[in-house]
Specification:
Largest sheet: 3 strands, antiparallel
Structural class: alpha+beta
CATH superfamily of one domain: Ribosomal protein L17
Order of helices and strands: HEHHHEE
Number of helices: 4
Radius of gyration: 24 Å
CATH class of one domain: Alpha Beta
Shape: extended
Distance between the termini: 86 Å
CATH topology of one domain: 50s Ribosomal Protein L17, Chain: A
Strand order of the largest sheet: 1-3-2
Number of strands: 3
Strand content: 5-15%
Length: about 150
């Protein structure tokens, strides 16, 4: 009997599956939509919903929890807090929608696009200040003379 078993294995080990889910969630926050298999989209949809609900709380503990899930990326966490939660401030759920896009040609797997249910401006990564490349004065190193006996 199959009892109390939930979730998907996705033909991966626990660590690999956890990394995949975190990567998909992070990609969703950054890009606004992701195109993946139906099973993976179905797996991460409630996780994204819970992250947005946690982010809407807004206290320090929830900010740290969300940041830890998004690989400690301050820019992505700030985008989730500033942009995504402000768009969904009046709603209590239904932040994402899943659109089926047909099947993949190689293995006939169902493909879906997971996206935000409202229009959210894209994530723009702030560029770091680049240092001017400086050429150091290098002295030519002369080989040491070796004594021969």
């Amino acid at each position: 009997m199959k009892k109390l078993i939930k979730g998907y294995k996705l033909s991966r080990g626990a660590g690999s599956r956890k990394a995949l889910v975190r990567s998909l969630v992070r990609g969703m926050v950054i890009d606004g939509s992701i195109k993946t298999t139906y099973t993976k989209a179905k797996m991460i949809q409630p996780i994204i919903e819970k992250l947005v609900n946690t982010a809407k709380v807004g206290d320090l503990a929830s900010r740290r929890r969300v940041s830890a899930y998004l690989a400690n990326s301050r820019l992505v966490t700030a985008h989730l807090y500033d942009v995504v939660t402000s768009v969904f401030s009046g709603t209590t759920g239904g932040y994402t929608r899943m659109i089926e896009m047909g099947v993949r040609r190689g293995d006939n797997a169902k493909i879906s696009r997971l996206e935000w249910s409202k229009d959210i401006p894209p994530f723009i990564k702030k560029s770091k200040k680049t240092k001017k490349s400086t050429v150091k004065n290098t002295k030519e190193v002369k080989p040491k003379a070796t004594k021969t006996k």
